[in-house]
Amino acid sequence: MSLAFVIIAGLTAASAVAAMALRNLVHCALSLVVMFAGLAGLYLQLGAEFVGFVQVIVYIGAVAILIVFAILLTRGMEQPAPARITTATPWAVSIAVAAFFVMAGAAVNSRKFEKPSAAPALQASPGTSKQGASAISVKSLGVRLMGDYVVPLQVLGLLLTAAMIGAVIIAMPERKGEGGGGEEVDRG
Amino acid sequence: MADLGDYVLLSMLLFCIGLAGALTRRNAIMVLIGIELMLNAANLNFIAFWRHSENANELHGVMFAIFSIAIAAAEAAVGLALIITIYRHYRTTNVDEVDSMKG
């Protein structure tokens, strides 16, 4: 376990806890950005450069901004955000902790992790690193996306188009005269 | 480079933090953020297992992670649009108070 991994993993886990535990929603969104950045660093460390940059562009650039916009549009930051502990809270936390220990126990008991195995070096760029962490080329990714994965890629494009149109239609304010939706918009 | 077990442990930790957050927080946006955390934990698993697999040049794990990220982006867009619509209708994003599907 290298020092870089410990630092990045600690930062990622701490900001994940902060993103879930802070009361102010804007602070939560900003902690989420730190967590996304930490994960992008881990992807880079693992040799998946393209996924790391996709993580930065899609998550930090798009999803986090979208969440901040949603928080501002719903005025979540103006709410007093009381630190309520409902009866469901201990149950939920204990369910999550139990899930963690079940998964950790299964992972520890599995044969795969009995002896730590170094990652095999990738053939795409041999001998670039003494630790075996080498990059896959974006070219091979693109060739594969246009070859074996061309049908899933097209389906994904269709899904993204449908999601974009659907999100616009869902979030579009209702017109006046079609039910009472328009008046409620004006009240705010 | 860290071992596979370390990455899997971090991924489990992130997943359970997201699960706890999605179950405890009452704001719909926070529930969505918890789901995003869980998705990211799964992505980290894909990449870690791909990197430590025997034939890493097949790139299956990377492909799966890329598709997963794209689907998560679509999910976030539609989910946040729904939350904004619900807020416009109910004047709240508390999932406990949104208890009716009638328009």
The major pleated sheet of chain B works out as: none
**Average pLDDT rating of chain B:** 89
CATH class of chain B: Mainly Alpha
Instruction: Please state the structural category of chain B.
Output: mainly alpha
Major sheet summary line of chain A: none
Distance between the termini of chain A: 53 Å
Which bin fits the share of residues in helices of chain B? over 70%
What distance lies between the first and last C-alpha atoms of chain B, to the nearest angstrom? 54 Å
Low-confidence stretches of chain A: 124-133, 180-188
Question: Which pair of protein chains has the largest interface, and what are the residue counts?
Answer: A-B, 90 and 72 residues
Number of domains of chain B: 1
Shape annotation of chain A? globular
SSE string of chain B, helix = H, strand = E? Answer: HHH
Radius of gyration of chain A: 22 Å
Unreliable residue runs of chain B = none
Tell me the number of helical segments of chain A per DSSP (H or I, 4 or more residues long). 7
CATH class of the domain at 1-75 in chain A: Mainly Alpha
Shape of chain B: elongated
